Amino acid sequence: MPTQNLEEQLRPAAGEKLVFDTNPVLSERLTHYCPGCHHGIAHRLVGETLHELGVASRTILVASVGCATFTYDYFSVDGLEAPHGRACAVATGVRRARPEAVVFTYQGDGDMAAIGMAESLHAANRGEKITSIFINNTVYGMTGGQMAPTTLLGQKTTTTRDGRCMEREGGPIHLAEIMAGLDGVAFAARCALDSVQHVREAKKAMRTAFEVQIEGLGYGFLELLSGCPTNWHMDPVAASKRIAEAMIPVFPLGVFKNKRTEQSSQSGKVHHA
Amino acid sequence: MSTEQRILIKGNEAVAFGAVDAGLRCYFGYPITPQNEIPEALSTLLPERGGQFVQAESEVAAVNMLLGAAACGVPSMTSSSGCGLSLMQEGISYMAGSHIPGVLVNMQRGGPGLGDIGPSQGDYFQAVKGGGHGDHRNLVLAPATAQECYDCMFRALALAFKYANPVLVLGDAIVGQIKEPVRRVPPADAVSEKTLAALAAPWRMEGYGKRGPDAQPRLLKSVYLAEGALAERNRLLAQKYAAMQAECAWECTDVEDATLVVVAFGSVARIARSTIRRLRAEGVRVGLFRPLTLFPFPAEALLALLPGRRFLVMEQNLGQMVEDVRLALFGQPGVTPATVQWHGIMPGLFVNADDLREPMLQALKEAF
Questions:
Q1: B221 — contact with chain A (CB < 8 Å)?
Q2: What gap in Å lies between CA B242 and CA B231, rounded to an integer?
Q3: Under CATH, which number does the domain B7-198 receive?
């Protein structure tokens, strides 16, 4: 249909019903992410959530450093850059200055659980009304595959060539469980992006992670087990398989704290999202 | 309060009062001596006015909270001393690179390292030459009295918003701890909170909905990876730093007939002024040039004093501002190394007017 522009081509014709649409919170542009990377899915979930909650026009994104540095290019919301690891501190300043805004950080495992651990835990402990999306792919992506604080024991990286070793590097950090133990945290969950079912669960948890902020209950935290085919040296299908077979046994999925429903891991139960 | 009434407060408290009277809305800081009265005062002053006070978990966090709040165009500040400012350099560089107007107060203590909690001017280079990574400059104000601490907070916020750039207020343990009468009245050139808000309107983070239904999202960042993009960014910064030269401020005392001009800032300048008064009474022709801005450095004003005069830089460090004085004067006709002399006071020492007398007389002898 050479006479029609893209907009017209995509519009439902008479008698047709629109069943799937582009997300207005996501910018229509190519991303810099590698083929098979799960950042795209995570971005889509954030975009859908902000759209469905109707808060995009008052949302401020605090980007981090790593593969997620350019997150702001893909969301049609006001955004600013934080130094490596400092997103939760920057977001604290933003939310304190703009109490009416919806504020979220989007951080990788190196950014949030290594260099930014102090800023992240203290923002969470203060119960800052912000939401953090934590991408756990067990590796430093942007810098080329070095060990992350979440790297699995035995996992080979460019700085642990014979595999991460407990005696030498310590074990993988379980950030969702740590977050759940802090009083200021209103919601802490871990989901995965390896299967349709898990993505749907992640979507549900994502919504709650934002709702607790909007309702003023406190800090919302969502950890997403994500694939990094490039630095895992795998094809995307094998990468998703690795999440299911190697990561989930170490990083159990579930909601570890939810002040909205008074569910808590302190009762010894882990609830799936 | 009548304009004649004065209150007896510390320089640190004057910083806090000045900041809130100038429109401060957010403070983020981490305790460190000798500036603790600033956060202590603001922890009650700000919430009373509907503002935000956050005791951060570190100076690293504090400066990044400042980055976030200032990015929203809300008058915001942090304060610290010595080692704390070292930790803040990352955030200062990011604020400079992203055009974000943070105000920072450094009540200097002795260094390097943990040093001591006595006075020092050892952070002059850090404040004036940038301090963090990359090419960046901070506007630097140098108060010497509690009254100036109060007044300069108005100027600091106004300049930060005018240039969308970090502004450093560089005091020291004496300036912060000294208790003296302060007139709590906004200075004549104070700008309104409305003016600050208008300056921030074109770039502040607020959620695009505040700008109308068809508004475009905004982005504040310092990363420019495309070929030539960072060069362009740095060109813009260079233009901004050049424009800041218009903000030079200084004070001259007894320089008209002086053969020796002491160049000093902050607490050292006020001690030197006492010495100069006594020497004047004895007929010694000595005067004082006091930079009120350290960046931009009032080089032109200093140069105007050159004919027939010699200079003695007095500072509490191992020789830092003296380099800017030499840059201002060297190369001019008739200037020799002896034209600019230097007397350093070791960081951590408390000196009085008597201590500076001999160095001034000695400089007079050596200069002519």
A1: yes
A2: 16
A3: 3.40.50.970
